[in-house]
Amino acid sequence: MKKNLVGGRIKRRRVKLKLSPEELSQRLTAHGCIISAVRIMKIEQREVPVYDSEVLALSHVLGVNVHWLVTGREFRGRKQQARVK
Predict the structure, then answer these.
(1) Neighbour-count burial for 47-57, b at 16+ CB within 10 Å, e otherwise
(2) What is the per-residue pLDDT for 82?
(3) pLDDT band for position 79 (50/70/90)?
């Protein structure tokens, strides 16, 4: 059973940025969020759940929108918000 929604997109973005799991871990630590390289690999393989604080830090360090990280779709602003109501 897959335990998170974001793992594949995290890996895709990390690879695009040419970062190893160790380098991503170091950047997250510098950002104030300690996630080991082993945990990053487990997140990417969707073997472990991800805390909301980790999702926020990952989105910041990877330079992506949280909405995209969770859904795979870009946030479109007010029109998308109106559909949610």
Answers:
(1) eeebeeebbeb
(2) 46
(3) low
